[in-house]
Amino acid sequence: MENKQLKKVLVVNGPNLGRLGVRQPDVYGSENFETLCERCEKWGANLGLKVEVRQTDDEAQMVHWMHEAADTHTPVVMNPAAFTHYSYALADAAHMVLDAGVPLMEVHISNPAARDAFRKISVISPVATGTITGMGLYGYKLALEAVAYLI
Length: 151
What we know:
Blueprint: E1 7-13, H1 25-28, H2 33-46, E2 49-55, H3 59-72, E3 76-79, H4 88-99, E4 104-108, E5 130-133, H5 138-150
Parallel strand pairs: 1-2, 1-3, 3-4, 4-5
Helix pairs in contact: 2-5, 3-4
């Protein structure tokens, strides 16, 4: 049997997503961040991907993670959370991932277009390879499947 190295994929999550299961369970579900991590790793492994899940409430940290992904040609699944609506710095950094020749999938647990008016704007969507919204945690599985297909 050939020992094939798994392709690394970075799954990054923005502000307040570390509070899954506690923050607005009617919107974001009752499952916690640890469950999201476990599922992403399992889903990724089933697709031949080595998934590393990260979360931060710090915009600069997310930008640095995009730089890291661009420099190492690592595909990204990103839930930018509140950064979605205003972070041009993150959008510019996300564009660098695409410039590196790897996909960047934007994912949202809820459907931002069906929520508050300010949530209808995404500065990330125009630079993302694709966007998946409103599918709960399952949206991450769909995003990982898209990455596996694209690479």
